[in-house]
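Before anything else, study the sequence and fold tokens given here and see whether the fold suits the sequence. Record follows:
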Amino acid sequence: MKILVVDDVGYTCHFHTRLIEKFGYSACSATSGYEALNYLKTDNDISIVVTDLMMRGMDGVDLFQEAQNLERFTDEGELDPPQFVLMTALRMQKNSQDKDVQRLKLAKELGVGKIMFKPLDQDELEQTLKDMAMGAPTAAGKSLDLYTPTQSLKDAVKEIIDSGNAGAAEQFVECLNEEVDSLKKFLSTLETV
């Protein structure tokens, strides 16, 4: 697995590439959306893209949209589009009519995997990449997207904690326990096969 870092500010691009390598991943970098798109067309090992939102020419949202339409193949068949982490210094509290804030909202609507605010929290970035790299093989040999439901689960837990609703927390734990029991039963059936 390889991670592509995209930022039109050279120092930032270099810093994040080295940081990702420090986490133990293979990384490459591009200083524009167009250069990144060329990497994605030629390097099938890239499975995660960490890109800046605001760049000259093709911004991070445009790159995400273009990447969704790329046809990438290996000997085993077609590859899924890479997962995206979008970096930005913007804050949503800014004027909602601001063009850049609108691009950030569009990124959320389009389903960008994760949006992180600069300066990046290194521990959060490392955990995000670990979550995105997590996958389980399916019968067809493709990987199962465990990142999206895991992230939804984390968001739901955070929302319950932030609300201070003990009743909701108890119901959520009960539901989780039932699902964990289902997974345990599933695993025990595999052990008997």
